[in-house]
Amino acid sequence: MRVFAALFLSLCTGAMALRAADEPALNTLTADEAKAGWTLLFDGKSLEHWRGYKKTEVPDGWKAEDGALARPGGGGDLVTRDEYQDFDLKLEWKISPGGNSGVMFHVTEAHGASYESGPEMQVLDNAKHPDGHNPKTSAGAAYALIACSKEVVHPQGEWNEAELIVTGNHVEHWLNGTKVVEYELHSPAWQALVDASKFKSMPDYGMAASGRICLQDHGNQVWFRNVKIKVPQAAK
Predict the structure, then answer these.
(1) Is the pLDDT of residue 24 over 90?
(2) Reported pTM
(3) 174, β-bridge pairs
């Protein structure tokens, strides 16, 4: 019996080691991803692809921390140094208890705040933040405009896999492998949603054809990792 138990334990340990070996290292690209044109926006150590909103350098409140792009302190929103039009962005996020953040795109710096131009994929602790009571402001939603088709967010403290795909005016939000939001920028349906929201008073909201990707500082701790982007070959 002891021999059988030892053999079973050995097989299980070997299987777990094999699975671990098959998993890509954090903040790296696989050979297939590199061949497909993906680029890392965070390698686990350097914030060279980022700076503060309307700033030249990274705010002190954003740091590389234990392999994550973290906001342990204040300092304002973080934006990419490059601008993007069409793209496929993948990342993982984890939020603090009751925390709130977001991932915005097509952000310009013509205004005092990033949200005056950039549509947002919400990052949130649905269970403990008040915004979690409203489907249109819950995790994964097109903030304040479109609710997720399903609630697939992981509980606070766990990592969530997010993907934001922008192709022309077509936008998709994916969360943990599920497409949860889909919309067409500048369409009558989109404009009706904007006109019925707080963004009605912001004439440049969602209007830019390109801009920076933004990680929001909403006053709470948040962590991002495996941040990577792919731009269509014709757009490079």
Answers:
(1) no
(2) 0.89
(3) 163, 179
d(CA 106, CA 88): 13
Asked whether residue 114 carries a pLDDT value surpassing 90, the answer given is yes
Beta-strand relationship, 68-70 and 38-40: unpaired
Domains along the sequence of the chain with CATH: 30-235 (2.60.120.560)
Using an 8 Å Cβ cutoff, are 171 and 121 in contact? no
φ, ψ for residue 50 (rounded to 5)?
-130, 160
Q: How far apart are the first and last CA of the chain?
A: 63
For the stretch 133-163, pLDDT in tens is 999 999 999 999 999 999 999 999 999 999 9
Give the other-Cβ count within 10 Å of 152's Cβ: 17
Helix (H, G, I), strand (E, B) or coil at 55: coil
- 81 and 47 Cβ atoms separated by less than 8 Å: no
Beta-bridge partner residues of 178: 175
Cβ neighbours for 9, distance < 8 A, ≥ 6 positions apart: none
